[in-house]
Amino acid sequence: MGKLIYIIVDGMADLPIKNLGGKTPLEYAYKPNTSFFLRHSVFGYPSVLGRYAPQSDSGVMADLGYDPLKYSTGRGWFECLGLGMSPEDGQLAVRVNFGAVSNSMLKAIRVYMSKGELEELEGEINDKVRIDADFDFKIGEGYRAGLVIRQSGKKLSAFISNGEPGYIPKFYPNGRKIGLAVPINSKKVNRIKAMRKEAVYTSELLNDFVSKASSVIKKSRVYRDRKEKREEAPNFLFLRDGAVEDPRLPDITGLYGKKWAAVVGMPLEKGISAAAGMTVVDTGELQDVRTDFYNKSEKLSAALKRFDAVYLHIKQTDSVSHLGKYSDKYSIIESLDRIILGELSRKFDFDGGDTLILTCDHATSSELKRHINSKIPVLISNVRFGPNRSFGESMAEKEHAVKIRSAVDILPFASRL
Predict the structure, then answer these.
(1) Model confidence over 77-103: pLDDT tens digits?
(2) 414 in helix, strand or coil?
(3) d(CA 191, CA 51)
(4) Most buried residue among 80, 82, 209, 399 by CB atoms closer than 10 A?
(5) How far apart are CA 135 and CA 224, in angstroms?
(6) Which residues is 47 bridged to in the sheet?
(7) pLDDT for the residue 401
(8) Is the Cβ–Cβ distance between 377 and 345 less than 8 Å?
């Protein structure tokens, strides 16, 4: 039985860009090592959430074979699980962004800070904020954090709106909850609202937390120092995708008969991997792309010696897409090809039955600076397939396998090879 390597490149898919000759960043990027895997390959071009633009939680779940419409209870659960916060049923787990507002109008959804600055704000919020419940607040990477409301005199509910612009919750009759990416049509910052009567207390509790935590941030040394340096300073917290129920993902080893590891650095992907029963190999997210990719390549190689299947997540492509930096995006894809796929090509054993899956969790438009509902290109490399010339959105759309209609079909298809 060969090894299975599953690489999910966050937000890799894109729209054609005029300045790139009408190509996408994936199509424009120079990818000689990808050509090694094209010698025996088949493409997929599935949707993730149909007409909706997904967030990364839905995209990664679907890529790993878990239908978000069946399992998703809200992104906040995975986010907090990946931060080591261990939420339990009935507790409220929420994703948090450090951002900035001015006169109740949006200035920045994301204010990037150093680890030291984030840790200082984490301590201030946990020490000084008091609301009508016990809570834990823990920082993640860049501008991210998690909030778990642990004890309250009243029942907590996930039927609440998001405080962060650009993302809305969609509720389904089976109790599932999915966060969708939408255009930001207004700069007005709205309070969190109850979507059902049962959620009134929860919405009031979270609005109280945001108000008090934002006040603490504006009195912090981090805020003062950044203002003095004329750097963007956080003064607000954006909350989204609260969850009160464990998604209870089936164990991935039981589903596919392989022992899995996940080489991941972001809390969300750590949480999903842990919930799926994978062994999580924490890579962190190193600031320099080349250094980060060499680190991930080494840990991928080490994991392949111990596990039958390894999931590797690459984050940087999505981050630069949100900033509109399409040239950085294709440069990151080229680094991925040169460093990670280059090393992998020297160890990949076609005759031994190895399989590579290379895809993304969703498309992120570098020009629109947001997630879009485009289909995703998938490359599956295995000795059973013939050659292809190039890999990108256009080629995947033209020559895709009809059996891969949705992202949830990718892993079942590859696991039968």
Answers:
(1) 999 999 999 999 999 999 999 999 999
(2) helix
(3) 27
(4) 80
(5) 26
(6) 406
(7) 84
(8) no
Q: Using CA atoms, how far apart are residues 167 and 262, in angstroms rounded to an integer?
A: 27
CATH class of the domain defined by 4-72+248-415? alpha beta
Q: Give one DSSP letter per residue of 261-322, joined into a string.
A: EEEE-SHHHHHHHHHTTPEEEE----SSHHHHHHHHHHHHHHHHHH-SEEEEEE-HHHHHHH
Whole-angstrom distance, CA of residue 413 vs CA of residue 417: 7
Alpha carbon distance 334, 357 (integer Å): 17
Strands 144-151 and 92-102, how do they pair?
antiparallel
Give the pLDDT confidence of 148-205 residue by residue, as tens digits: 999 777 899 999 999 999 999 999 998 899 999 999 989 999 899 999 999 999 999 9
Q: Which pair of tokens denotes residue 146?
A: 């998690």
Scan for tokens 């969609």, then name that residue: 170
Taking residue 117's Cβ as centre, other Cβ atoms within 10 Å add up to 21
Q: What is the DSSP string of 376-408?
A: --EEEE-TTS---S--SHHHHHHSB-TT--BGG
Sign of CA dihedral 232, 236, 240, 242: positive
Low-confidence ranges of the chain (pLDDT < 50): none
Helix (H, G, I), strand (E, B) or coil at 333: helix
pLDDT 10s digits, 273-301:
999 999 999 898 898 999 999 999 999 99
Angle formed at CA 218 by CA 215 and CA 220, multiple of 5 degrees: 110
- CB distance 72 to 49 below 8 Å: no
Per 3-state DSSP, the chain is made up of helix, strand and coil in percentages (nearest 5) of 35, 25, 40
Q: Where in the chain is the domain with CATH 3.40.720.10?
A: 4-72+248-415
**Rounded distance, CA 92 to CA 34, Å?**
43
Q: How many angstroms separate the most distant Cα atoms in the chain?
A: 63
Give, for 138, the enclosing helix (H) or strand (E): strand 134-139
